[in-house]
Recover the amino acids of this structure.
């Protein structure tokens, strides 16, 4: 029997935000920051973090990896018109 393993990484999209000198904040985010109490209040700060997150993405790549396995038995392989040389080239 022969086992063929197909494996590849695929990149579907890329993004890159221009790096402005100052980031423009959305009105909602700006208001949420402005309304935070001056003394630490766990629930108030947690709410802002849950709503807006903790990171700014400046660039990224979207994609993945796939793997496929194909098993050929000798009888099927020998009955095909594919030679071992052609098989190895594949």
């Amino acid at each position: 029997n022969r086992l063929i393993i197909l494996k590849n990484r695929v990149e579907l999209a890329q993004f890159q935000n221009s790096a402005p000198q100052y980031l423009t904040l959305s009105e909602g985010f700006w208001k949420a920051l402005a309304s935070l109490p001056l003394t630490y209040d766990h629930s108030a700060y947690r709410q802002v973090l849950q709503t807006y997150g903790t990171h700014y993405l400046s660039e990224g790549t979207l994609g993945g990896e796939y793997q496929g396995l194909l098993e050929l038995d000798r009888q099927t392989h020998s009955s095909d018109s594919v030679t071992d040389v052609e098989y190895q080239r594949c």
Remarks:
- The CA atoms of residues 35 and 44 lie 9 Å apart.
- The first strand starts at residue 2 and ends at 16.
- The chain has one domain: 2-89.
- The longest helix spans residues 42-52.
